[in-house]
Automatic annotation (TrEMBL), chain A:
UniProt protein name: Branched-chain amino acid ABC transporter permease
Top-rank lineage group of the source organism: Bacteria
GO CC, alphabetical: plasma membrane
Sequence intervals crossing the membrane: 28-48, 54-74, 81-103, 115-132, 144-162, 174-199, 260-281, 313-335, 347-374, 381-399, 411-428
Annotated compartments: Cell inner membrane
Keyword Cytoplasm among UniProt keywords: no
One matching Pfam family: BPD_transp_2
Keywords (A to Z) from UniProt: Cell membrane, Membrane, Transmembrane, Transmembrane helix
InterPro entries in UniProt: ABC_transp_permease, LivM-like
Automatic annotation (TrEMBL), chain B:
Main localization of the protein described in the UniProt heading: membrane
InterPro entries: ABC_transp_permease, BCAA_transport_permease
Subcellular location: Cell inner membrane
UniProt entry tagged with the keyword Cytoplasm: no
Gene Ontology BP terms: D-alanine transmembrane transport; L-alanine transport; L-isoleucine import across plasma membrane
Species of the source: Vreelandella andesensis
Top-level taxon of the source organism: Bacteria
Protein name (Swiss-Prot/TrEMBL): Branched-chain amino acid ABC transporter permease
Length: 441, 334
């Protein structure tokens, strides 16, 4: 903390201040190149494939917008985007999958509800026990009592829950969904991700910025472990598919058209989010957020509630990630907890944001689409290069290549992503489309 | 009594093993934190890299250890420590030093270290493949079964050869670090720099040397931790995300910037993990007959299943950040 306040933010120099009405040459060139790339993909790979790529890129753009307000607007680093994406995907699955009568038709929902009620009651008792010191119980005794009661009640509730969930698993498979439209799941997924973000932010945002990164990294792995191992809720490794779309599916009107309709839904969501963020960024609220990012002490001196503002923006970013995760999950039409990887869902988003321009919404969207195209195209390229290397090695040195070369070739992409992150931070810390800092007067 | 032996095998020994590994890893993290003031996310991958070096050397010369009577992997450990230390210094020169020179915020360094994490992961997987491999290439893993001289005790205490090496090496490493930090000139300079970098520089301490020394120590310790972990189980290239959280939790529990605290924190986290996944029903079984009849114990009384092990360090981390963000031993960096 002493570090960040002592040095002035090096990203900010008065030379950066751009006149307000500049011809957007850089934006036009970059987006023109992007359009050319998209058209090239359409020409080479066909319409159905390319539209799928665009829809996924659009979902990633929502995730990237979530990260750009956390990192770009407020300087908070979230290393666990994956967890929030997975939560969104889970909610999309839970709300849209058809109702499972093998579960709801039995007495199991009642049992499960009873256990949940026990859990709530146990929580209330423990919270009550922590307040015992108001009735004259010594503080040390209160702490001991609260911990003992908490441990015992936790063990009781968790063993009841284990009984019920194993029954659900053996009798009904999993609890199934609610059979509601997918967008309900997206909204709830955003809300749930925001709730988790509130919890994490509440714990970490008053402390060093590194702690937030550690905690988000942890919560992401926990969410994944939970979704992977709760077979009664998510079928775990058995995966759930298909997830119904809110738009007409490919079975009715063909791949290209259905994906194009889905793409327009995501485009509308992006447009709405973009518009709202744009307004918020230029509003006094956005100015306050940037003031806190650039100089905490002076903003505190101006009477801004720093921790509260930080929490606001962190939760907002998490909500967007949950929403984007839900849309991505529904589009894939498959809920596979093991498919959520830190590389694909955290670091790819990070690269999109820092390459596109943290704090610049347009740059973030550009980064999302551009990086996603490169990412998708790099898979066949990596395989091709590896085959070339193997052929070369065999031909020249008589090298006997191991047979899992393909999976290794894909690992080379991890290396490239890592290299991209370090190089961008070093040579273009403001991204391709830097944040425009307005000066007044 | 058999239950007690079961407890010793599953909690005391297992907890000490994980605790030692977390402790050695957390020392490195906390040293880097105290000198360079950022959370080094690539640490777990440097550990993996150290273990991978040992694996490579052991595969190249599998018969070296047999002539002296220790596993080859242990003979190769010092060499791997050297290589890993060199790697750590090289990473600093190539990636962190330019960022430091720009005067970036610590959080940008954190992102840079995440980039390094991915690069290391990619490199290691590119060369080792994604599966697990044993570090015992040519040797055999000895397992000692110590029968207890009590009546009615049938279960022996089980301890494996790498676990014994692990305890010895941890002890040696900790004592050596203690002597270095307290007796040597460099160690004292390091402590001075962690207390107040400007003052240390003003009093003629070469901060570049200190930074390099920190990386050498952190790299060497990371190689030890990674190798010992891979000896105990197997070498896997994708350990890192599961190691990071416990190691950071250990460093923060002990108070960031506090090497002895990191050791204590490592054991706290290690034992907490094993205690949380231990099935307490086993210990209560002998008293089953004296329990009231209305109380029926479920067969599984573990706090969390083994698949949720990662929840434990997270819970500890959150608890310590809420109640005592400076850590148990009052770390310097908040």
């Amino acid at each position: 903390m002493s570090h960040s306040t002592k040095n002035r933010n090096p990203d900010y120099t008065p030379n950066d201040a751009t006149p307000e009405r500049r011809f957007p040459l850089r934006e036009l060139v970059l987006f023109g190149a992007l359009l050319a790339a998209v058209l090239a993909v359409y020409a080479i790979m066909g319409a159905a494939y390319s539209t799928r790529m665009l829809v996924e890129a659009a979902c990633y753009a929502i995730l990237a917008l979530g990260l750009t307000i956390q990192w770009g607007y407020a300087g908070q680093f979230n290393a666990g985007v994956m967890g929030f994406v997975a939560l969104g995907g889970f909610c999309a699955m839970l709300f849209s999958v058809p109702v499972n009568d093998a579960f709801w038709g039995t007495e199991l929902p009642g049992e499960l509800g009873k256990v949940l009620l026990y859990g709530i009651a146990a929580t209330l008792i423990v919270v009550g026990a922590t307040k015992l010191d108001r009735f004259g119980v010594p503080k040390k005794l209160r702490t001991v009592l609260a911990i003992v009661i908490g441990v015992v009640l936790y063990l009781v509730v968790i063993s009841l829950l284990r009984d019920v969930t194993s029954q659900i698993q053996s009798q009904a498979g999993f609890i199934g969904g609610f059979g509601l439209p997918a967008w309900v799941g997206w909204v709830v997924g955003g809300a749930l991700a925001g709730g988790v973000g509130y919890f994490i932010g509440h714990v970490c945002l008053g402390l060093r910025s590194d702690y937030l990164a550690i905690a988000t990294l942890g919560i992401a792995e926990i969410i994944k472990a939970f979704l992977k191992n709760s077979d009664w809720l998510t079928r775990g490794t058995a995966t759930v598919s298909p997830l119904p779309w809110p738009t007409p599916g490919p079975a009715d009107i063909g791949f290209t058209l259905s994906r194009a309709i889905y793409l327009s839904v995501t485009a509308v969501v992006i447009a709405v989010v973009f518009f709202l963020l744009h307004r918020a960024y230029h509003a006094p609220w956005g100015r306050m957020i940037r003031a806190i990012r650039d100089n905490e002490v002076s903003s505190a001196a101006m009477g801004k509630d720093i921790n509260k503002r930080r929490l606001e923006i962190f939760v907002l970013g998490c909500i967007l990630m949950g929403l984007g995760g839900g849309m991505l999950g529904t589009f894939n039409s498959l809920f596979d907890p093991q498919g959520y990887l830190p590389l694909n869902h955290t670091f790819l988003v990070l690269v999109m944001v820092i390459l596109g321009g943290p704090g610049n919404n347009l740059g973030t969207i550009f980064g999302a689409v551009a990086v996603y195209i490169i990412w998708i195209m790099s898979e066949p390229l990596a395989l091709f290069l590896m085959q070339l290397a193997v052929a070369f090695g065999e031909g020249v040195f008589g090298w006997d290549a191991p047979n899992n070369m393909d999976s290794r070739a894909l690992q080379a992409r991890v290396l490239v992503i890592g290299m991209l992150i370090t190089l961008v931070l070093r040579f273009a810390p403001k991204g391709l489309l830097p944040e425009k800092i307005k000066t007044h007067g | 009594m058999n239950e007690l032996v079961f407890f010793i095998n599953n909690v005391v020994i297992a907890g000490s093993v994980t605790g030692s590994i977390y402790a050695i890893g957390a020392i490195g993290v906390t040293l880097i934190f105290s000198i360079m003031r950022f959370a080094h996310f690539a640490h777990a991958d440097i550990m993996t890299f150290g273990a991978f070096m040992v694996l490579l050397l052991t595969t190249a010369f599998p018969a070296v250890g047999a002539s002296i009577g220790v596993p080859t992997a242990l003979v190769m450990l010092p060499l791997a420590m050297l290589l890993t230390a060199a790697l750590a210094v090289g990473i600093d020169k190539a990636f962190y030093k330019p960022l430091r020179a720009h005067g970036v915020k610590p959080i940008v360094m954190v992102i840079g270290s995440l980039g390094v994490t991915l690069m290391l992961q990619g490199l290691i997987r590119l060369f080792s493949g994604t599966g697990g491999q044993s570090l015992y290439v040519d040797d055999r893993k000895e397992i000692f079964r110590i029968a207890l001289p009590f009546e009615g005790v049938r279960a022996p205490i089980v301890i494996t050869e790498p676990q014994i090496y692990l305890f010895v090496i941890t002890l040696v490493a900790v004592v050596a670090l203690h002597l270095f930090l307290n007796r040597s000139r460099l160690g004292k300079a390091m402590r001075a720099m962690s207390d107040n970098p400007e003052l240390a520089q003003a009093s003629g301490i070469n901060t570049n040397t200190i930074v390099a020394v920190t990386w050498v120590i952190a790299g060497a310790l990371a190689a030890i931790a990674g190798t010992l972990l891979s000896l105990d189980v197997t070498f896997k290239p994708d350990l890192s995300f599961f190691l990071l959280l416990p190691i950071f939790a250990a460093a923060i529990v002990g108070g960031v910037g506090h090497p002895y605290g990191a050791i204590a924190g490592g054991f706290v986290v290690g034992f907490a993990e094993t205690l949380a996944v231990f099935n307490w029903n086993v210990l209560l079984r002998p008293f089953r007959d004296s329990l009231p009849t209305w109380l029926e114990l479920p067969s599984n009384l573990a706090f969390v299943g083994t698949e949720y092990k990662i929840v434990v360090p997270f819970f500890i981390l959150v608890a310590i950040l809420v109640w005592r963000p400076t850590g148990l031993f009052k770390g310097k960096v908040i």
